[in-house]
Amino acid sequence: MFDQAFTEAAIATPVVELLSADKVFANGTRGLAPVDLAIQPGEFVCLIGPSGCGKSTLLKLIANLIEPSDGRVQWWRGDFSKVGMDGRKLAFVFQDPTLMPWAKVDTNVRLPLDLAGVPKAEAQARAAAALENVGLAAAARRYPRQLSGGMRMRVSIARALVTEPDLLLMDEPFGALDEFTRNKLDEDLVRLCHERGLTNVFVTHSIYEAVFLSTRIIVMAANPGRVFAEFVVDEPMPRDENFRRSDRFAALCREMSALLSDASLASVVS
Amino acid sequence: MKRPLIERPWFSRVMAPIGVGMLLLFFWQHLCTVYAIPKYLFPRPTDVAFAFAENWRPLLGSLVSTLYVTMMAFGLAVLLGTFTAFLFVQSRLVELSLLPYAVLLQVTPIAAVAPLIIILVKDTTTALTLCATVIAIFPIISNTTIGLRTVDPGLAAYFRMNKAGRWETLWRLRIPSALPFFLAGLRISSGLALVGAVVAEFIAGTGGTSAGLAYQIMQASFQLDIPQMFAALFLITITGVVLFALMVWLQQALLGQWHESAMEAER
Predict the structure, then answer these.
(1) Which residues on chain B are in Cβ contact (under 8 Å) with A143?
(2) Interchain CB distance below 8 Å, A94 and B159
(3) Across the interface, which of A65, A102, A115 has its CB nearest the CB of B258?
């Protein structure tokens, strides 16, 4: 009884909480109006909106790459200094793969472990497992430049997964890829996050991608950057291409589309 | 797939220039013979070869002496230059306060400073090495500094996010990023070290026991022994080519698989 209650309490702790966090840049422009947002464990949250809506700023706040001008951001109800200490980890995937061109794929994947001082043999084994997970075991001894754009992005994801993070932050990771590759990567990502119970915050420009991936979509508007609406995608995980072909998917995309138009209209400077 | 001989990369890279060289030598020999140019004006390749065969012992002795100065200067330039570059990237203030002097070193013609160095430094070999180092060091400093600063901003952010320390970042990120620039610096510097050594030898004159190839050239010109002069000249040129080839090989070995500068053009 006690155990179960304890577990439930633990699950109820939000992974990230923004408490009236806002961002005013050094030049005085308001990047983000105060945001209140709590992200629960296992959620897949997409941030979408017209350019200038502050979705990247919001993601950077969550990644602690920038600090809020006012308000607070909490990770597991604590401050950022505790992140990574008690086994709760955060990983970031950039828009570009940002791999080291001089290092082979497995060395690239191993990098966060090497930086954390994990013993070499263990790091190597974990890197191999992470590469296996993204379907790139065969490419371990190749150089990044020998891989396609999609494969490089997979390496970047393997590098994020190798630390066994609890929270994965992704800034338009598949924006530069063609649609087939992107769809495939989206499917793999949904599966990986579901298997590991990962919490994910994902910035995208694509309505289809957002609907496919998310359990919840945060629609944002610009001038000033703010949260405009929330949209829950109530569809079981993991999802596959059957979902993408379903009428429900089309209906959800239509709804999202309308919502995004409203957000765009609301973004015009009056 | 087996390509025809002429299309293979090693063939075009090695055989083609050698072929051109052979052709030039042939015409040189032929023209000198046809117009009966005396060998004290312009020797034929065969005269040069005979001169070398006759005097190979002192010539090779001089070569060793020049090579010694060149390598010492090159080594010193690499060590000091790299060290200076590391100092530069540690702090902007250090760079701003030292860079003008590095430039000063670079813009002052070595021929103008060499006599001073040779007077001030008693040991001739040390003096020559210093002169050559002064010439060879600048490309190393400037290239390595640029290299250490040219870090992919995304990777730099990644290292920061993973709380990588200063040394970790230097070792795993800055040094590999700087490598292509450093190697390009080496390539320039190795040639300059040889130039510096020979120029300094010319200025130092014939004095001293360590007489390099410049000494051989001067002696030959005093005695109008032009074939001998050519022989010494060829040795200098060949040394330069070998140094350059070594640097290209090093670049290929270290960067071949990942950096565009050392990559075979993709067909």
Answers:
(1) 257-258
(2) no
(3) A102
Tell me: the pLDDT tens digits for A158-196? Answer: 999 998 888 999 999 998 888 888 999 999 999 989 988
Tell me how many domains chain B contains.
1
CATH number, residue B187:
1.10.3720.10
CB–CB contacts below 8 A, A to B: 42
Distances (CA, A) of A74 to A38, A80, A85, A229: 9, 7, 15, 22
In a domain, B15, yes or no: no
Cis peptide before B100 (omega within 30 of 0): no
Closest partner residue to B176 (CB to CB) among A98, A100, A145 is A100
Residue entry with tokens 């090693």? B10
Alpha-carbon gap, residue B26 to B43, rounded angstroms = 13
- Best CA proximity match to A94, nearest among B160, B85, B229: B160
The amino acid that residue A13 corresponds to is T
CA quadruple B174, B180, B181, B185: dihedral sign: positive
A143 touches B: beta carbon within 8 Å: yes
* Chain B residues lying within 8 Å of A112, measured CB to CB: 162
What confidence tier does B107 reach under pLDDT thresholds 50, 70, 90?
A: confident
Residue with the two structure tokens 């990962």:
A198
Q: How far is the alpha carbon of A34 from chain B, nearest alpha carbon, in Å?
A: 25
Within-domain flag for B39: no
Residue at B139 is within a domain: yes
Are the Cβ atoms of A103 and B162 closer than 8 angstroms?
no
CA closest to A105 among chain B residues: B258
B178 in a domain, yes or no?
A: yes
Q: What is the mean pLDDT of residues A216-243?
A: 88
Are the beta carbons of B98 and B154 closer than 8 angstroms? no
Compute the residue count for chain A.
270
Which amino acid would we find at residue A117? G
Spatial CB neighbours of A61, under 8 Å, sequence gap ≥ 6:
A18, A21, A23, A32, A67, A68, A73
CA distance, residue B22 to nearest chain A CA (Å): 40
Residues B207, B123 contacting (CB under 8 angstroms): no
Q: Answer with the residue of higher pLDDT: B8 or B162.
A: B162
Residue A2 to chain B, least CA–CA distance (Å): 37
Q: Which domain holds residue B165?
A: 53-260
pLDDT of residue A84 exceeding 60: yes
A203 bridge partner residues? A47, A171
Is the CB of B163 less than 8 angstroms away from the CB of A115?
yes
Please give the DSSP secondary-structure letter assigned to residue A95.
Answer: S
Test the A interface: residue of B151, B161, B175, B264 with most A CBs within 10 Å: B161
Residue A118 in contact with partner chain B when CB distance is under 8 A: no
